[in-house]
Amino acid sequence: MLCRTWISSAVATAELLYVTGSIAASLIPRPDLNDRSLLGGGLTRPFRLALVWSLVLNFLRYAFLQDLRFTNCDEADEQVQQQGATDAFLHCTNRRSLNTLLYHLDKAVESCLLSFLQLLVPYLVQVKLKDYIHILPGRGLKMWLTCILLLNCAGVIAVQFDKRLWLIKKLGDALSSIPIIHSLGLYKRIVTHPANLSSANAQNLIFIHTVLVVEYWGLTVGALSCTGVVMDDAKSPIGVHWWLGFRITNIFTAHLRVFIHAIMLNMIDQAQFNEPQDPQPGNEDEATSRYSSEGRMVIPHKI
């Protein structure tokens, strides 16, 4: 138990530092260099605000809740002589239950927030696709987001009865990769059509492939994390080295996905910021050629 407590503290410190660095790299760059506001950005402002709240949740968990999963009843031994064995045990048990609930609630809220952030990318891709194919942006994503929210809520309740039921929440985290993979795969199929392939689209495909690789990796790690929750055993060396390792990897993979999405959204925000507000009639072809040569992420007009 003591070993796992040390591991939990070390992971919490590493997670906080990693999240702080990745969020800083997402918030500091902005399209307008003269923008001195806290959040910055235009199209990405809601994304940036959610990132700040994610950082706040991480600080709160690190300051107050990082070791609560492994809270034991050692303090009960010191209270036995003053309060009696029964009263001391009940006091420790009630405190442990409340602390564990707060910890899992904090994790579930953060997971829902991260899932919302991750689903912004497929939504923006669908917005771009609506002018070229029959699609209603966000319609299918609402179902996925609702499912993720319900699974996270159910996981918080279920884990109070059996720690292995945290699997429910982990399933919700893993599901967030599926709509992203589908939307980006659709985008890739459109821009790689022989009639639509261009140098700008070819450049965009490199980053699209990068995001897809990260999402497939996130889905794989999510499945391993689910296995780790089910198979984890604090008394088994394998439980510490393998199952707990899967769960720890999933923590950093979730924030890696958000960081990659932040880069992509900042690129889209930059392209929108550079768009001319009132293009002159008859210069559409020239403007399109100029922005395509700059590597702007565009969807072809013909499919």
Describe the fold and architecture:
The structure is a single chain. The protein is mainly alpha-helical. It has a single domain (2-75, 101-272, 288-293), classed as Up-down Bundle (Rhopdopsin 7-helix transmembrane proteins), CATH 1.20.1070. 75% of the residues lie in helices and 0% in strands. It has ten helices and no strands. The radius of gyration is 23 Å and the shape is globular. Residues 274-294 are annotated as: Disordered. Keywords: Membrane, Transmembrane, Transmembrane helix. The chain crosses the membrane at residues 6-28, 49-65.
Q: What order do the helices and strands come in, and which of them pair?
A:
Blueprint: H1 2-27, H2 45-65, H3 74-83, H4 85-129, H5 139-158, H6 167-175, H7 177-191, H8 199-231, H9 237-273, H10 284-293
Helix pairs in contact: 1-2, 1-9, 2-4, 3-4, 4-5, 4-7, 4-9, 5-6, 6-8, 7-8, 8-9
Task: Specify the structural class.
Answer: mainly alpha
CATH topology: Rhopdopsin 7-helix transmembrane proteins
What is the second-level CATH architecture? Up-down Bundle
- Biggest sheet descriptor: none
Number of strand segments:
0
Portion of residues in beta strands equals: under 5%
Task: Compute the CA-based radius of gyration.
Answer: 23 Å
Region (Disordered): 274-294
Keywords: Membrane, Transmembrane, Transmembrane helix
Transmembrane segments: 6-28, 49-65
